[in-house]
Specification:
The chain is built from four helices and no strands. With about 90 residues, it is mostly helical.
């Protein structure tokens, strides 16, 4: 993922100016990486190390979403609606 793409994700999901570490931003970055890795694995089906990394990212995203759902349900609901996640 290049610098411009990350900057765009920061702008779309930040909670305040200069925010790069909130749960919303992290989940959005993980979602982008997950979609990129999924596309890679559709071409390279036997790339097992990438598959393992993808599963780890999915787990991290799930844990962050669980945390966000416990802390603030409205923030959680708006985030999954914006990202189009099924939960």
């Amino acid at each position: 993922m290049d610098k411009d793409t990350k900057g765009q994700i920061f702008q779309e999901h930040h909670t305040h100016e200069g925010d790069t570490g909130s749960a919303e931003v992290q989940v959005a970055l993980f979602t982008r990486r997950i979609t990129d890795l999924t596309a890679h694995l559709q071409v390279h089906r036997h790339d097992y190390s990438t598959r393992r990394g993808l599963l780890q990212l999915v787990g991290k995203r799930r844990r962050l979403l669980n945390y966000l759902a416990q802390e603030s349900v409205p923030r959680y609901q708006t985030l999954i609606a914006r990202l189009g996640l099924r939960r």
